[in-house]
Design goal:
The chain is α/β, with parallel strands linked by helices. It is built from twelve helices and nine strands. Strands 1, 2, 3, 4, 5, 6, 7, 8 and 9 form a nine-stranded mixed β-sheet that branches. The protein is globular and about 55 Å long.
């Protein structure tokens, strides 16, 4: 009997010890990317940093590959309280705050450093009104420079896109950009894209190298053309209801982790981009063409800027362009 009580006491102490180290807050973070994608890896790094900085009090559980829904679902989930955090594109975020899509204007960034600086300054200011709608932007991560892929022909000039059915995000800027280039835009959720290309529902799509490689798009696309028509940021969002429920010390730790994970993830993107292209070339399944007349693409998409100037805000556009 004595031995029985000793065993019971040991079990109780073990349970109590486990409870003592259990997280006070468990948050769900959903996104659409494959786990190998740099921003998917960034999400895991972010969760690790939050756990470390809060002493285990906040546990962030990451759900990749559209497990919690597509990008629109995830953003709506922040306001409904069904999702706590998400990584999403500024393009889809623009459906909730039109000005957020200003970063998706074709060729608005001169280069990667310009994009980083503009997003971390002007970008964070532009997105502040989202807080009144139940969404807070913690930091701006990277999806990457977007390029065209298709199954019909290499794309060197805008005329090569005439009549191509191209999948785009559910964002008017991308729809009008494709029209300006002579293509037929087809809005579609990311999770449906591989099958749509495989079955010929669409001829092609546009995405950064990370998605083209990790989502295996190169396996169902004959031609990749390095058009670099837009740069795609990936903001880290949290629902305001969740944010306000956290103690100040945890909010500070999460914000610090968000900035650290942003820098870590951006560096990872730079390290992996060339590797992704090398892997695709080595596969022999898709031809990569860098002989693209970007000046012609810039000229063809100029009307898109004028079309959305009022909606996005002329001052916002000028502020981004003028960032040094």
């Amino acid at each position: 009997m004595k031995r029985f009580f000793v065993v019971c006491l040991a079990v109780l102490l073990a349970v109590a010890g486990t409870a003592a180290f259990a997280a006070e807050f468990t948050l769900k973070l959903g996104h659409i990317a494959d786990p190998q994608n740099p921003y998917a890896q960034g999400a895991v790094k972010f969760a690790e940093l939050v756990k470390e900085k809060t002493g285990g009090a906040v546990d962030i559980q990451v759900f990749p590959s559209s497990q919690l829904g597509n990008q629109r679902d995830l953003i709506e989930g922040l306001t409904f309280g069904t999702v706590d955090m998400t990584l999403t594109s500024t393009a889809v975020l623009g459906n909730f705050l039109p000005q957020a899509a200003v970063f998706d204007l074709p060729f608005i960034f001169r280069d990667i450093p310009h994009a980083y600086h503009a997003l971390d300054t002007v970008g964070m200011e532009i997105c502040k009104p989202l807080e009144q709608r139940g969404i807070k932007v913690l930091s701006m991560w990277e999806n990457g420079v977007r390029h065209m892929t298709n199954n019909r022909n290499p794309i060197r000039v805008p005329e090569d896109m005439k009549g191509l059915k191209i999948r785009v995000m559910e964002q008017p800027i991308y729809i009008e950009m494709m029209k300006a280039l002579g293509a037929s835009p087809t809005p579609m959720a990311f999770g449906e894209l591989f099958t749509a290309m495989q079955q010929g529902v669409v001829d092609g799509q546009e995405n950064p190298a990370a998605h083209i490689w990790t989502s295996r798009f190169f396996e169902v696309q004959k031609y990749i053309s390095l058009t670099a028509h837009t740069y795609s940021a990936e903001p880290l969002l949290v629902g305001m209801g969740v944010w306000n429920s956290l103690p100040e010390k945890h909010r500070a730790a999460i914000q610090e982790a968000a900035h650290e994970a942003r820098d870590w993830q951006r560096n990872l993107c730079r390290e992996l981009e060339n590797k992704f292209w090398e892997n695709i070339r080595a596969s022999g399944k898709s031809e990569i063409n860098d002989d693209v007349d970007k000046a012609a693409f810039m000229e063809a998409t100029k009307p898109v800027w004028a079309m959305f100037e009022d909606k996005l805000g002329k001052k916002n556009i000028e502020a981004i362009v003028n960032v040094k």
